[in-house]
Design a protein that fits this description.
Shape: elongated
Structural class: mainly alpha
Order of helices and strands: HH
Number of helices: 2
Distance between the termini: 94 Å
Amino acid sequence: MNIYSWILIISGVILLFISALEAYFEALDKENKPSYTEEEIELAEYLEKKQAINGIFLEAVAEILRHQKR
């Protein structure tokens, strides 16, 4: 076997190794992703909306207090 055959074989082994590592890390990422229930997602959306409404309310109260001080 000449040098080109060895280079081809080594390149193939390296590509297989890289592909195996990529598949392994992809499986780890899928395993570590949190899965939320529909109820948890709805609760998070509700809390975000409530926080936005509370922020608007506090801004309005602050504006009213500024006008009363004048």
